[in-house]
């Protein structure tokens, strides 16, 4: 009698289920990603070394990513940045001072990001740090109101500050790039579902990031398959990319494994993400932010921050730029006006 092979579950096992008291609890540091790299294809989808230089253009924005000899940083390497961003945002929300330099246990990072804690897990972590520090980016994407034209790494360095007797990393020190730290300081981040770390396929993770960024709390978001491929940074053929997306769509139809959003693909090659209603309520979609909700004093301060400019025009640009309601809209708008003036000067 032939026994049919057991079907592999769509999500990785939850390795955090067997955590101990000393593991950093992500209930207090909800996983968060920076919006700039959620929007643009910074990370490689390949599980093999990707040494190709890539350049993406969308409107006036460009991103050029150059690998080191170890290859481009991957979608799974991004877990490290998510962990660092999450810890810093938790500290900011608790009113504690933060810096771009973080110290933590390698074990805590592995557990929090649902990775294996055996020798293979530690070696994979070391390789991820090398790719993150080696990948160089040139872009004019704005983070924290600052437009970058420089070349920089995703992390400046990673140092093993303590090892076990057999040479395994134990305590780590990581210095984030100014670009990433700017995004954290200006809270240009979004909360991710905890099952993000359980998604098996790099493409699933990338599709979720895009849905989280663009759909937010809206009922649905549609994107054509060719544009989705461009935003994912996939180098597959159009036919292969359609097959990969179709496979994810069919799996989600069976198991509803994609976090926060369902995904469908129709005959006209339109991909539709629909909210499952699980995105945190605290993160308000832009259409829920009233167009004229600022007090009169804010406009007076805005005119001082950006002399000569029409502050109502800047306000419109600001509301198009933000993706979630700031805690202090007046202060956030005035700060945006100051950065607007710093970048553009007096209107001609």
What structural category characterises the helix and strand content?
Answer: alpha+beta
Into which percent range does the helicity of residues fall? Answer: 25-40%
Q: Which term fits the overall shape?
A: globular
**Mean pLDDT, as a whole number?**
82
Largest sheet: 4 strands, antiparallel
Distance between the termini: 83 Å
* Order of strands in the sheet with most strands: 2-3-5-8
Q: Give the strand tally.
A: 14
The SSE order reads EHEEHEHHEEEEEEHEHEHHEEHHH
Q: Output the number of helix runs.
A: 11
The oligomeric status of these chains comes to single chain
Q: Give the count of structural domains.
A: 3
Return residue spans where pLDDT drops below 50 for at least 5 consecutive residues.
17-28, 282-292
Strand content: 15-25%
What is the CA-based Rg, rounded?
21 Å
What can you see in these coordinates?
- The chain is an alpha+beta fold and 348 residues long.
- The chain folds into three domains: 28-192, no CATH class; 199-275, Arc Repressor Mutant, subunit A, CATH 1.10.10; 286-344.
- Helices cover 37% and strands 19% of the residues.
- It has eleven helices and 14 strands.
- The protein has a four-stranded antiparallel beta sheet. Strands 4-10-9 form a three-stranded antiparallel beta sheet. A three-stranded antiparallel beta sheet has the order 12-14-13.
- Helix 9 (296-305) packs parallel to helix 11 and helix 10 (311-321) crosses helix 11 (329-344).
- The longest helix has 18 residues, at 238-255.
- The N and C termini lie far apart (83 Å).
